[in-house]
């Protein structure tokens, strides 16, 4: 069977760095940090008092007030970015076959704040079960693709992927595969997460996963730095319209890039810690290269998972050196989580978009907040520290990994006809 070629024709972003794809990219290229003291709740008793929140977002600017109240912020973020990606794609929804367009969406947790708030309200009561009638649909992770399909009439493949911080990369990978196999002409994909709430910060604090650099939030996310002390929690969403090449060409769509391959693997090791030798990470990158039919020397830019944790950063870099060999010192590597924070299930989508824009603009976004070299990380690597670098990027790889040992890697390249 001859597999279909898959291209990207639309982008939408709502991030701690900007509420559209263009605002997001402008901040990435400038090396802006999205971290600041938390505004959503009183952090006095929390060990971490900062995060990368979405800023200046008012859901009723985009959604009917009554409908917005039926949605968790996680879904609101998805609805807004989905609309941006559809508009950006230039797709005429009155002329396409909507039975051949799907929505596949990733979220690590789903309606986190909805669940928290309903449980708090119940605990404060007299034991009488008084729950919001929209509690369950607001909470479930698959409601976002469901509502997107309802709003736009997309009747193709429709489901959610849940693999912790790899969720939206898994969603993009699944969408890519369904189009390759001819099961859809186009799929709106990506992911969203809204975890900057009391239980999100408190839960990750209990695991000792978050940075506690409260005196300097903007420099707290420092991947590959010797003094990194944990990740910074972020929130937001990224949406991508994937389309079968001939379908896109037939309607004269702008093509941002072509999806060339993807890989998946499991560490099969620990619920939260990466494998000390990075074997699952090495495997997923090799799987992606094999799927794309590429040799390691063809990758110009690697957007790493790079969360700013002591174990994770060093392990991923060592795995990359084994995979890329001599090219590891020639290609650019960076972690955009140094700016956005860690968007959990939405991380893969917003980092996929960073790679798309790097291809289009010829600029590699930086790893900001590098102050002290880590002796465990090879100084000969170009980790794009502190400032963006101009370079022709023809092919990029993006990695995301999740608790439970879930690993995904996606490769995109400039569309060359």
Automatic annotation (TrEMBL):
Pathway: Lipid metabolism; fatty acid biosynthesis. Pfam families: ketoacyl-synt, Ketoacyl-synt_C. Gene3D superfamilies: 3.40.47.10. GO terms for biological process: fatty acid biosynthetic process. Belongs to the thiolase-like superfamily. Beta-ketoacyl-ACP synthases family. Involved in the type II fatty acid elongation cycle. Catalyzes the elongation of a wide range of acyl-ACP by the addition of two carbons from malonyl-ACP to an acyl acceptor. Can efficiently catalyze the conversion of palmitoleoyl-ACP (cis-hexadec-9-enoyl-ACP) to cis-vaccenoyl-ACP (cis-octadec-11-enoyl-ACP), an essential step in the thermal regulation of fatty acid composition. This is 3-oxoacyl-[acyl-carrier-protein] synthase 2. It comes from Ekhidna lutea. The lineage of its organism: Bacteria, Pseudomonadati, Bacteroidota, Cytophagia, Cytophagales.
